[in-house]
Every structure is written in C-alpha cells, then in structure tokens.
Design a protein that fits this description.
It is a single chain. The protein has a domain of about 150 residues: Isoleucyl-tRNA Synthetase, Domain 1 (Orthogonal Bundle), CATH 1.10.730. The protein is about 50% helix and about 15% strand. A hairpin with a 4-residue loop joins strand 4 and strand 5. The longest helix has about 30 residues.
Length: about 500
C-alpha cells in the first residue's frame, strides 16, 4: 500500500475574477501534489469553487440570471485557468453539487442533534462583501475592519454553534501540535485570538435564500462559511468511510491565503471537534502579493491576470516565478521586470543554456549516443555528490513548504553543472583521441546530473522537464527510482535541446 497524501486549496469564490493570488495557492498545491506522486505517494489534490451566499445572489439578480446560471458561467474561468497552468488536481468540488449539499446537511444535523447548534437571535453589524458579522468594538470608524466598506445592522433569528465550548480543547490541540498552524508567526496570532475568548457563532441566515437549507427548518440557510469549509470532506464522499473519505481524511495540508486563516484554524477545527471528526494535520497560510509595491485592487486596475502572463511569458516561466520569487508564507511583490529578470537569468541563461550546451556536445562528440563512462575523477564525484545531496535537501524543503529554497537548491546544482563544463573543458579534451574515455566520463556526469535535476523539476515545471528529459533520452515518467544516480545507460540516444526559454528583450 502506498502512503496517502491529501492536499487542498481553498475553494474560490465564483464572484471573483481569477488573479495571481488564486494562481499562487493553486500552483503551490500542484507542486506539492506532483512532488508527492513522484515520491510514490497516493495523492488526492482538491480545488473547487464556493458558489453560495448573498454576494452571488445579489450579483446574479443584477446580471438578470439565476445564481446557478451565474455560477455555471463563471466557474469556467477558474477551470480553464487551471488547465492552462497545468494543474493536476484529482477533483474539482462545487458547493452547488448534490454530494456537497448532502455532506453539509449531514454534519450540520449531527452537531444540531448533539445540542452544539441551537436556535437564538442575532443582532450585529454585517459586512456583505466579507460575509462576516462584527461587534461594535471590532469596527474601524464604523466600517468593516477587513475591507473598510460599509456595514449594516442586522437583527435576525439565527442558529448558533457553541464555539465557546471548544475554546480550551482547541488551544490544547494547537499547543500539542506545533505544526498544525504554519508559519509560526500565524500560529501565535491565532492563539492570542482564541485566548481573547471565543463567542458562539451564528451559523444560519434568513435574509436570503441562495444556499443550503438548515435541516428541518428551511426558512434558514446555512452560513456560507460552514457550508464552504465542509467541502474538504464532502469532496471525499463524507460520511462514507468506505471510499475516499476513509482513505484520505484527515488532510495533510490545507493551503490557504492568510486572510482566511481564522476560518480554517478556529471555525473549521471546532466544527470538526463538535462532529467528533479528526482535525486537519496542517493549515499553511501564505502571504499576499502586491503589484509594483501597491495593494492589488479593482479600483487601482492593477489586478494581475494570470492568463495574460501565460500568453506573454509561457506557463512554466509563470509557475517558476510564483514559486521562486518569494518565500512561501511571506508577502511578495509582483513586477514584470522581476519576472523578466528571472526568465533571462535563471531560466534562459542557467538551465536552458546548460542543457543546450551539454546535449550539443553529446551530439558533436559522440553522434548523440551516450558512451560508457571511463574512470571517475574527483571533480566528477563532486558534481555527483552535489546532485545527490540536492535530492535530500529538496525533500526536506518541500515538506516545510519552502518552495523557493527547494528551487534554490536545484539551481545550485545547475550552476555547478555550468561551472563543471568550464572546469573540465570538453572542447579541449575532444581535440585529442587519447582523452576520449575522459571525455565520455565528463559527458555522462554532466547529462546524468541534469536528468536527475529535471526529474525533480517536473514537479515545478512539468512541460519544461518533459522536453528536457526527452532530449536526454530518458523516456520514463519521473519517479523516486529516477532520482538515483546511474539511470542513463550506455547507448542512450541524446538529441540537441532547443532553447527551453528564449530570452526576453525588453
């Protein structure tokens, strides 16, 4: 039996236009999923769309369509973008699907029957864009503390979830599981939020109808966050233990943006505790992207549209930039000049140049047929050791979600490869037939190091790695076995690689 690995992105709100932030989380999830598959795991990778709530209902009314028509139309934007970005998800959950509604109704009813959801009355300030209630003291100058927009006073009958009951249990869980909330700074933030005191949470609305009705009282619609968070188990077929739910839950990691950390690290675990279900192993909150130093906003018209980036720079260049530019967990800044710089230096110069030089020499000196290596010198062993060490380092960094550090480690091997060419000077060796065995060793060492590098890189840059491995004569799917030195065999056919990444002239 393979070990399992379950990774999720948030489900994206259908009322949004896909932007760089959505692409960032989803590419990170994809890198993790591809890497774990490569390492022999049975991976389940979930993404999807959040389609209920007042905002969708309002937007649909404005557009003169039903909420479902709006969702059906808009969800395609996300699905098409994930296809273009090479996202390898196993499933795409929509909260309007029957499997989701059934699971949400079930968990709500279980908690209700247990007495941890009760009927009461609610009066507070509500922010529609954020779908969040705020107390008077939480408002900033009478406006929503999150988005700074107008709030309205709402008073309605509501079902409440006894979140306060689980406060101590949640703190104990976070303290006993230091990896539960990552990065560390976010963990401290959540602990202090909980210790200020958790209030019972309003988990139903009566002011609109687009959502999942409360079981046994369909005047009430289940609160959109209760509905949305449950997607992580409904997609697995919860409550059916016999299928994917029994196989993959609890999740290994929920990847999210830091703006929705509280929902994932406070609300969601307490819902699960109340239902008697296992908690996620890890919630990892990454940072936000600014654009040329400014916050992304529709009003500034500076929202970075991923399709446009792909058209201009190519899929793998965009994937590389997102994973390399910023340590995962910190905020980052997007600029076209930084992206062009990465393409020209890291991609065109370093990795592209190394592959085209190496394969061109194999074709020129050995007619593209890999020779048997001769005696191995100190310098060859050093490149082999560096390549093998990189495999171990990358594994550690990917487990820490340190994607940029993993890429840095890979690039150190690429730089070492370029330096190895300069130090061994194959063109000089080729002038004297007496050096042919030495030249064979140099070519083997150079190409084998890159084969292993591109096997690992397939998690980050799938189409680039596939092209590189083809020109190196490696026709096997990237796998853990493929990360062991000695894969390339004598007699393998090597072809000259075309430029992996053309330079971009500004």
């Amino acid at each position: 039996m393979k070990p399992t690995f379950y990774v999720t992105t948030p489900i994206y709100y259908v009322n949004d236009v896909p932007h760089i932030g959505h692409a960032y989380t989803t590419v990170a999830g994809d890198v993790l999923a591809r890497y774990k598959r490569l390492m022999g795991y049975d991976v389940y990778f979930l993404t999807g769309s959040d389609e209920h709530g007042q905002k969708v209902e309002k937007a649909a009314t404005t557009a003169g369509e039903t909420p479902l028509e709006l969702a059906d139309r808009v969800v395609k934007r996300f699905q098409a973008l994930w296809e273009r970005l090479g996202i390898s998800h196993n499933d795409f959950i929509r909260t309007t699907q029957e499997r989701h509604k059934n699971g949400v109704t079930r968990i709500f009813k279980d908690i209700l029957d247990k007495g941890d959801i009760y009927l009461g009355e609610y009066e507070d300030w509500y922010c529609t864009p954020c779908e969040t209630f705020w107390t008077e003291t939480q408002l900033l100058e009478g406006r929503c503390p999150d988005c700074n927009r107008q709030v309205e006073k709402l008073k309605e009958e509501s079902y409440f979830f006894r979140m306060s009951k689980y406060q101590d249990q949640l703190v104990a869980h976070i303290e006993a599981n230091p990896d539960f909330i990552q990065p560390k700074s976010k963990r401290n933030e959540i602990i202090s939020f909980i210790k200020e005191g958790l209030r019972d949470l309003s988990v139903s609305r009566t002011t609109f109808s687009w959502g999942i009705p409360v079981p046994g009282n369909d005047r009430h619609i289940i609160y959109v966050w209760f509905d949305a968070l449950t997607n992580y188990i409904t997609a697995l077929g919860y409550p059916d233990e016999a299928g994917n739910y029994g196989r993959y839950w609890p999740v290994d990691v929920h990847l999210i943006g830091k703006d929705i950390l509280r929902f994932h690290a406070v609300y969601w675990p307490t819902f699960l505790m109340a239902a008697g279900l296992p908690l996620p192993k890890k919630v990892f909150a990454h940072g936000w992207w600014t654009v040329e130093g400014q916050k992304m906003s529709k009003s500034l018209m500076n929202v970075v549209e991923p399709n446009m980036l792909i058209d201009k720079y190519g899929v793998d260049a965009v994937r590389y930039f997102l994973m390399r530019e910023v340590p995962f967990g910190l905020d980052g800044d997007f600029s076209h000049s930084a992206l062009v710089q990465r393409i020209n230096s890291d991609l065109a110069n370093d990795i592209g140049n190394l592959l085209s030089r190496s394969t061109a020499m194999a074709v020129k000196y050995f007619n593209g047929v890999l020779p048997a290596a001769g005696e191995v010198a100190e310098i060859d062993l050093a490149l082999k050791a560096k390549t093998e060490e990189m495999v171990t380092i990358v594994d550690k960094f990917i487990d820490e979600m340190a994607f940029s550090k993993a890429l840095q480690a890979i690039w150190e091997v690429i730089s070492a490869g370029n330096k190895y060419i300069d130090d061994t000077a194959p063109w000089t060796l080729a002038k004297d037939p007496a050096n042919s065995r030495r030249l064979a060793t140099v070519m083997y060492t150079l190409l084998e190091s890159q084969r292993i590098t591109h096997c690992i890189l397939s998690a980050f840059l799938p189409s680039t790695a596939a092209r590189a491995l083809t020109s190196l004569g490696w026709d096997q799917a990237p796998s853990q076995a493929g990360l062991v030195w000695g894969g390339l065999q004598e007699g393998t056919s090597v072809t000259k690689a075309e430029a992996l990444f053309p330079r971009i002239e500004e």
